[in-house]
Amino acid sequence: MEEVPHDCPGADSAQAGRGASCQGCPNQRLCASGAGAAPDPAIEEIKEKMKTVKHKILVLSGKGGVGKSTFSAHLAHGLAEDENTQIALLDIDICGPSIPKIMGLEGEQYVEDNLGVMSVGFLLSSPDDAVIWRGPKKNGMIKQFLRDVDWGEVDYLIVDTPPGTSDEHLSVVQYLAAAHIDGAVIITTPQEVSLQDVRKEINFCRKVKLPIIGVVENMSGFICPKCKKESQIFPPTTGGAELMCQDLEVPLLGRVPLDPLIGKNCDKGQSFFIDAPDSPATLAYRSIIQRIQEFCNLHQSKEENLISS
Amino acid sequence: MEAAEPGNLAGVRHIILVLSGKGGVGKSTISTELALALRHAGKKVGILDVDLCGPSIPRMLGAQGRAVHQCDRGWAPVFLDREQSISLMSVGFLLEKPDEAVVWRGPKKNALIKQFVSDVAWGELDYLVVDTPPGTSDEHMATIEALRPYQPLGALVVTTPQAVSVGDVRRELTFCRKTGLRVMGIVENMSGFTCPHCTVSPGGCRGGEAAPGRWGPWAVLGSPPSPRSAPASSPGAAERSWPSSPGCPS
């Protein structure tokens, strides 16, 4: 179902096959018959595929540029430090795939033996290639990533998402619905312009019944590499993530300060933990990663108890 | 190119889109600063915020909670001042609650953007600045298709210095080329920072008019800063300069 009319109401909408824009669409009869409203068979196929994946974590934010991809990459690096843990990092930001750059990958898909990556970035032949796709085509790509990639035995699947609450987010939640997602980590920066978008993201998670592991406040203070003193580049004028988390009753997993070495390492495609093992940012990351692991393990043992009881 | 039908954009002289493949580089901040600078130069300006999932412009201009009213030609934009020299339309004004998420797939977003272009009574404007979300997808295609008959002046593409931003922006430039949208210029935002404690630039370029503790201005320096005080979410806005772009007619 590659070409859809520009005003396609959506195959699962009440207007499917009946709207004015449906005239002439090759799938009109199919939609009008109600077939579009039936559950996508891919959901069951993905459920089967995901049986070998223990934990699935989505990294979200309503806001762009807060550090989702940076966080996803470093969550993957941190978890992969245990050689016995298999990590998979899936980048579903179809229009702006940052993960290959941040992980230092040109086309190969394994950073380490136990850390594999998938991104639309690998499918582009040139760095200038733009992915100018509408929603349905992006959804199709995400379905393919989840259903057709041979993930194998994975302990943690981390899914990096684009900003917003749209096709990509709805699709990944829908396709993984039967496979069970452990939860979402939501990234923000301290200023209100970010928080206002992040509150929407939290409401999105609640609407689609996606558990929230917690919120990470990124770029939370800047440490000058020369004088080592901290200043606020993005002042938390409305209380920052802490107050938002209190108001909305979600856990604050931690605050990561802005260390210029993070950006430099991302540009070079290296793990920041190796370059700056004693940075306050590294320590913050490690504490957050530990809390995420604890959440996932707690969840796993709850499920095991349910099954055995 | 087909001529524009007389419609709600018939009185708009110039349309400028602000784009970036990358999120969080400062599109909304720069759209706001551009609009304020143009107003300061005596122009009548409108801002159309087509970021439906993350509408930032109302907050940046202190217009949260304002209501949109109907008039005989459609929706009246929200005016920020008595003189009606600056007006704004955003999905932010249409939400019942500010934290309500707009969880729409592409087709519904396309439909609202078409309405924003055809059903908002902009009136006579010198400039319409269109702020976009990051990416190269539904919102961008819908906006360009809807604006095409009105021959937009072009696009400002915003980036930050890091490689991940530049990577996305290269894709955005391809998008502009493919959709026939002229690129007026590239703005490099967050080009450096001056630590307020030691007043030594930590490796970034300082820029001529950066006050200590503020982000540096854009890579191209130019005309007078915005007289409006910086919104809390936009540090340093009052100190920034707007580059005088040769492609931007006065």
TrEMBL record, chain A:
Location of the protein in the cell: Cytoplasm; Nucleus
Quaternary structure and interacting proteins, as annotated: Heterotetramer of 2 NUBP1 and 2 NUBP2 chains. Interacts with KIFC1.
Binding site for [4Fe-4S] cluster 1: 8, 22, 25, 31
GO biological process terms on file: iron-sulfur cluster assembly
GO molecular function: 4 iron, 4 sulfur cluster binding; ATP binding; ATP-dependent FeS chaperone activity; metal ion binding
Name under which the protein is recorded: Cytosolic Fe-S cluster assembly factor NUBP1
Alphabetical list of InterPro entries matching this protein: AAA+_ATPase (IPR003593), Mrp-like_CS (IPR000808), Mrp/NBP35_ATP-bd (IPR019591), NUBP1/Nbp35 (IPR028601), P-loop_NTPase (IPR027417), YlxH/NBP35 (IPR033756)
Pfam families: ParA
Domain AAA+ ATPase: start-end pairs: 54-199
Family to which this protein belongs: Belongs to the Mrp/NBP35 ATP-binding proteins family. NUBP1/NBP35 subfamily.
Keyword field contains rRNA processing: no
Cofactor note: Binds 4 [4Fe-4S] clusters per heterotetramer. Contains two stable clusters in the N-termini of NUBP1 and two labile, bridging clusters between subunits of the NUBP1-NUBP2 heterotetramer.
Organism placement in taxonomy: Eukaryota, Metazoa, Chordata, Craniata, Vertebrata
Job description of the protein: Component of the cytosolic iron-sulfur (Fe/S) protein assembly (CIA) machinery. Required for maturation of extramitochondrial Fe-S proteins. The NUBP1-NUBP2 heterotetramer forms a Fe-S scaffold complex, mediating the de novo assembly of an Fe-S cluster and its transfer to target apoproteins. Implicated in the regulation of centrosome duplication. Negatively regulates cilium formation and structure.
SMART domains reported in the protein's UniProt record: AAA (SM00382)
Annotated positions binding ATP: 62-69
Keywords, alphabetical: 4Fe-4S, ATP-binding, Cytoplasm, Iron, Iron-sulfur, Metal-binding, Nucleotide-binding
Classification via HAMAP family: Mrp_NBP35, NUBP1
Annotated residues for binding of [4Fe-4S] cluster 2: 224, 227
Cofactor annotation: [4Fe-4S] cluster
GO cellular component: cytoplasm; nucleus
Automatic annotation (TrEMBL), chain B:
Pfam families: ParA
GO biological process, one term: iron-sulfur cluster assembly
This protein's record includes keyword DNA damage: no
Compositional bias segments (type: Low complexity): 229-238
Keyword Iron: yes
GO CC terms in record: axoneme; centriole; nucleus
Spans annotated as Disordered: 214-250
InterPro entries: Mrp-like_CS, Mrp/NBP35_ATP-bd, P-loop_NTPase, YlxH/NBP35
GO molecular function, one term: 4 iron, 4 sulfur cluster binding
Name of the molecule in the record: NUBP iron-sulfur cluster assembly factor 2, cytosolic
Organism, scientific name: Gorilla gorilla gorilla (Western lowland gorilla)
Gene name as annotated: NUBP2
